[in-house]
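Minutes, project huddle
Topic: does the predicted pose make sense with NAP bound?
PN asked that the exact inputs be recorded in the minutes so nobody has to dig through chat later. Recorded below.
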Amino acid sequence: MHTRIGMAGLGIMGRGMANNLLRHGFAVSVWNRSPERAAEFSDRATVAKSPRELAASCSVVIGCVSDPPAVERVVFAEDGVLAGAQPGFRYVESSTVSSALTRRIAEAMRARGADALDAPVTGSKEAAEAGTLLFMTGGRQETHDELLSVLMAMGKKAIYCGESGQGSRMKLVGNTLISFMLEGLCEGLVAAAQGGLPTATVLEVIMASGFASPYFAFKGRALAEHDFAPHFALDLLVKDQTLMLAEASSLDVPMPGLSAIREVFRMAQARGYGRDDIAGVVRVLERAGESQTHQRS
Ligand SMILES: NC(=O)c1ccc[n+]([C@@H]2O[C@H](COP(=O)([O-])OP(=O)(O)OC[C@H]3O[C@@H](n4cnc5c(N)ncnc54)[C@H](OP(=O)(O)O)[C@@H]3O)[C@@H](O)[C@H]2O)c1
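Predicted holo structure (tokens), as shared on screen:
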């Protein structure tokens, strides 16, 4: 039913998602704030001048941009998606933002006879490129069902989480777990190395254990090689930690662990690692260990 799909945002995630829509035979239009990234698609896709033009020429637009200000710009600006939305139009919000923002988008779309689904993703750069993302959706069940063929061109599964905002909320909970897992792995590896345990041995034990996780294998490799080329930028995880803490506060739920972990990631930002991969946070702990050893000797 939906034949021309628009992609707003062609960063690490959006680029892979647009390529997979093309691979699945959809006609695709693209828009990106910096035109160079859209130009890469000009031989295979239509390049729109604005998100409004994208919405006016497509029956579905997927947004995947950095943060809440970026989503505000894409959706609510004078030349934004909302201004181009006709009755029957569908907007899919795949950026990681607050549940309040995705609820506001859905209400605004419905007021125009259109609809929106929050459909944030997990899987990072490799899954975006391979078309194996996991979507978690919020909105009307019938809109989720209607858009499944589009989502499945970019992912392997879409789990319906409930009303508008619940997909976004679920994504923030997921990134809370990522924060704990990564911080735990980094602290463990730094302490192990300081005590003379080889990183390869620690990772081998973890992966053979009952607490093994594919996430530890993925990030363990990056940490062992000190390869911090961005799959998921550290700045974006701090954005998600901050959104989760605000969400928890509005629900009167304490998250002391996440608050403490965010401070470590903020230290990494202060040291200039914000655009590196989230695994780059380990350097904060390594340096702290080195300086304490130096003080003792
Ligand atoms: N990378 C991951 O592993 C991952 C996984 C799951 C979810 N996510 C989420 O997916 C979203 C995109 O992440 P990404 O890794 O693809 O980020 P990215 O590579 O940094 O790309 C960010 C995109 O947002 C655009 N953008 C930034 N500020 C904007 C603004 N004010 N107005 C319009 N566009 C703006 C950028 O445009 P320019 O090209 O002009 O800078 C670019 O297209 C984020 O919400 C992130 O949290 C990421």
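Observations noted during the meeting:
- Residues 9-14, 32-34, 37, 64-66, 69-70, 73-74, 95-96, 121-122, 124-125, 231-233, 236 surround NAP (CB under 6 Å).
- Strands lie at 4-8, 27-31, 46-47, 60-63, 90-93, 115-118, 121-122, 133-138, 155-162.
No decisions taken; revisit at the next huddle.
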